[in-house]
Amino acid sequence: MSSPDRAETAAAGVVPAVSPTDGLAPPMGSRLGDGLARALQRLLVAAFFVYIVAFLLLPSAEVLVGAFRGEHGLTLRYVRELLTQRYATAFANSVELSLVTALIGGVCGLAIAYLAVSPRSPHWLRTAVTSFSGVAANFAGVPLAFAFVSTLGTMGLLTLWLQRMGFDLYATGFSLFSFSGLAVTYLYFQIPLMVIIISPAVQALRREWREAARNLGATPWQYWRYVGLPILMPSTLAAMVLLFGNAFAAYATPYALTSGNIALVPIEIGNVLSGNVMSSPQLGKALALGMIAVMALAMGAYALLQRRISRWQR
Amino acid sequence: MSQNEQQRGRRAFLKMGVYTLGAGALGGLLPGLGSRAMAAGTDEALIKAARHEGRLNVIALPPNWANYGEIIPAFHHKYGLRVTSASPNASSAEELQAIRTLKGQSRAPDVVDVGPSFALIGQKEGLFVPYKVPTWDSIPEGMKDPEGHWYGDYFGVISFGVNTRVVKHVPHSWDDLKRPEYKGQIALNGNPLRAGAAFGAVWAAALGNGGSLDDITPGIEFFADLAKRGNYIPIAARPATLESGQTPITVDWDYLNLAYRKKFKGRVAIDVRIPETGVFGNYYCQAVSRFAPNPSAARLWQDFIYSDEGQLLYLKGYAHPARFNDMVARGVIPESLMAELPPSEPYKNVRFPNAEQTKKAQDTVGKLWQKMVRT
């Protein structure tokens, strides 16, 4: 869209300038505007790169170097410590929790988005779902944890109601302060986040495709299997990677809820980096390096999957 | 922004007036005290040098913690130095980091208030400069570096803060906590590997259950047992959770629980108990930064908070000052202040760990806590 536009204005700027008979003012003006636009564009691109360097590359480099730097020069001590049972458990827990909530959140979010924003659904439903999602996706951290404690905690409102109705939730083995409790709490912000980021893709599904499929004799199942899902799959996967990262980095919610009784990587980093009990900045950096590695793996897996899935699109 | 700052300034100014009144009243209670403390502490040259610098940078001093909300304005009022208080809720680790990274800048911290293990790290890295306050000799031996790189300013012991609206029978001992009636009611203020009070609580439980300063394992076993019974809930306790009853029994430092008792007065009755056995204490340490932009003001601040006047201000915030025993012996603590504290009996048994024991306990908790304490 934008490149032909730019070519056009560039031509308009150059051609009249060589003809001396035309008035000079308009071409001068457009050339000036053109130059300004280009300068602005370069400035913005430069600003973006400065931003990337300052907030992504430099911190990553600092983490990378810091993870290998001990008191007396280079050392593998801290990275090796990641392999001890304690930190290996933290990584396993973090990956499992992120994976589970990204999958459940992704599937539920996609279904809700389809039901709410498809052209056939009523307008009020769409407004309600999108505005609720906007709020809920950003409701995280300590307030969310305490909201869940007062709803589903041992003394929570819902827990007590269920108890009065003769159903003891905690007798079933459920605990808000366990892995499943954390997963439920995470889903509170994962599902709405999925709804927000997948809605544009769902809206882009054209009614004509479904009609065309039906005219050619496809069943609804066949339409979804061969048309709907393949189209949605790349964006769904991308959204799930985002959800994975979102859960992987969550810190305040699990800390307020479990005080770190379930080992998670961000909590372990907090313990060694900014606590009042221990201090080992290098170990913190080694843990952060591990997080970067896991995220890089997730992105790599996403890229591979997407290439396979979207092959037919080319 | 600037209007905001102005407002903040005005609010601080109003508050300061109130604090000044309070400090004045305290002085009135103790005739002659102010001048006695001054006699020990006055070094006209130091005061002059500090006044010349005109300001002091402090860090990690929360206003609602150990009465810093009153101590800072009192210092400001007394010497006329402008005190800049940065990140009140920062941790000890972040304080040391601030010294390292702000080196050479005018906003670098002049003094820090850190846990003992961090005081040792700072000393080892050469972040502190030794300084001995005039009242140096009355600081207990176990609480100071012989060269004066750091020294304890106040201490607390682990206590039970109990919301009596929810809890009918107030627990007296660690053993009491195991009763079925406390199901889902007992909380720490965070993770023992991160929050100093939670770590202290585990150690106190160890002392009360056959452990020692060299062996914290019985404390971990105790909480594992509480978790199995469903009594321990891992919610990170906050003042609001104690008040609302979400964490009706909060195991925390005595000075915090006592401050909450005062704060919630008239709304919720909080009972504060020091467990009969297993009295674990820990102190914070003051240290002067080697890279202090206002070195004289930093020393004047130390003189102030280690004077009788400064130490009494800690006690007013329910934190036991380092020179508590000395001041009791000299009879300079007002009756009204003593009356607000819990019975002094359990404090006689208080045990403080040394650096080596702390390191060992950290390793043990790191290895065992998540494995054994299952909720």
Automatic annotation (TrEMBL), chain B:
One of its GO terms (molecular function) is thiamine pyrophosphate binding. This is Extracellular solute-binding protein, family 1. One of its GO terms (biological process) is thiamine transport. Keywords: Membrane, Signal, Transmembrane, Transmembrane helix. InterPro entries: TAT_signal (IPR006311). Gene3D superfamilies: Periplasmic binding protein-like II. It comes from the Bacteria. The chain crosses the membrane at residues 12-33. PROSITE patterns: TAT (PS51318). GO terms for cellular component: outer membrane-bounded periplasmic space.
